[in-house]
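re: that complex we talked abt at group meeting.

here r the seqs, copy pasted straight from the sheet so there may be weird spacing, ignore it
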Amino acid sequence: MKVGFIGLGAMGRGMAGALLKAGHTVSGFDLNPAALAWLEDNGGARAAGPAQACDGADAAVLMVVNAQQAEAVLFGDDGAVEGLPGGALVLSSVTMPAEAAQSLGARISEAGLNYLDAPVSGGTVGADGGTLTFMAAGNDAAWNAAQPLLTAMGQNIYRFGDHPGPGSTMKMVHQLAAGCNLAVAAEVMSFGAHLGLDPAKVLEVLNVSAGGSWMIANRGPRMLTEGRDASSAVDIFVKDLGIVLDAARASRFPVPVSAAALQVFLGASGAGFGKHDDSQATRFYERLGAKKVRSDQ
Amino acid sequence: MKVGFIGLGAMGRGMAGALLKAGHTVSGFDLNPAALAWLEDNGGARAAGPAQACDGADAAVLMVVNAQQAEAVLFGDDGAVEGLPGGALVLSSVTMPAEAAQSLGARISEAGLNYLDAPVSGGTVGADGGTLTFMAAGNDAAWNAAQPLLTAMGQNIYRFGDHPGPGSTMKMVHQLAAGCNLAVAAEVMSFGAHLGLDPAKVLEVLNVSAGGSWMIANRGPRMLTEGRDASSAVDIFVKDLGIVLDAARASRFPVPVSAAALQVFLGASGAGFGKHDDSQATRFYERLGAKKVRSDQ
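got the structure back, here u go
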């Protein structure tokens, strides 16, 4: 397929690369010139803006930061909608509230295009390997047209409904679990260290027992170090758990564990670690007097 | 080895069975006559009390409910200490505060015996299969003497120090992670259901993504049902997270996520589900108006 790819950050590059590997034609746009150079070096074409990237394309794939950026690259000056031919697909993997996905979907539909609400999980490793998990929602036309792209970029592909919204709801709910489990990992590692247990050994036990989680296995080892190379930053969970708390408040649904987990990320961010790797949620406890989990200083 | 086994509940039976399978001689005691009949049927000998069970034994293994029961079966009338010969091992897999393990260890040592503080994780499946995780602490004499028993009952065997206490600390810290991850699982499944997502599909996504955990994989499926057969009850986490909160308060250490998780179990217990399977932590959210996660009524 001929694809216009908008948003070539760490995730977007991996996804565009997976599309290229699968034989799709990719024309891309990003504000960062280095991202465009990367695309050219990897067999894609650079475009001057979203409209040019999507000119005559079968599909636009969006991997920008939030709903506001998605709206701008679709409907702003030189937006993707100007370039896409009638009936083309807009596949958005942008993390956004369900209401935003519904609203964008309605506008895309009015423009004579098909919208698939399709956020992802799997991080840069999943993006680079084409093994992302997709949480998709949209009508049959969008779902069917997206199959060659979804299978190129993803390994586990789920559909949550025939209209935009539930894909983004699932992504939000996923972030609730991921963020809370990470806060639990930071709390257990910090409390264990504080009580005099060897953090590396605590981690080893948790990984073979009922206290284990994807987050403990993946971020636990990084808690033992400075976490200077951020794979995903503390502030991402400040944002994503903030979206969870807003949605919960709007629907009068109590989420006490998420509310507490957000405090951990807020505290770590407020203490100056917002741009650090999210494993450094441990700094919340460290700043409050806990013995250090990390051993490299 | 000749072993006196005290406490033949669901966990104790599995562990005693693993010792018998490995060729050890087991004489056991429990207040429940059915447990003693089970032991006889499986190749062990029933005893009239702790002292008789441990008469001339190389080791006593304790798997009673808490520190108070452990103290009673060791030092009470007809206690195990009366039956054990000098230099014998006392291996306690009882979940208790670290201070209780230290205090029991000191009294056992004064009685001329060796104490291994060795709580476990792995549930009845791990007990039945001889694949428990042991978090042990004690002097070399206790640690070395216990090896044939630990390897018969366990798969992952860790030592946290040369004196009683840190094994129990590790178990408490483990319960923090397990209890919090279970509360997270209840919160994410309930919020997803409330927002209109299919709970079975939410579970499927979480199990292949960064939001996954041992608890989501193991208890998630039971959340989809009534959870009438309790493998471990809601009130166990009321107790274990209570121990975590007490220890955290005593050491002036904030554990906001654990504090919130305890409210979920307290709420479910207060609503009448304390003896139900711990997957029914979802009832906290259901009683507050959430759409049901379970589908069988």
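couple things i noticed - Chain B touches chain A through 68 residues (CB under 8 Å). Residues 2-163 of chain B form a domain with the Rossmann fold fold (CATH 3.40.50.720).
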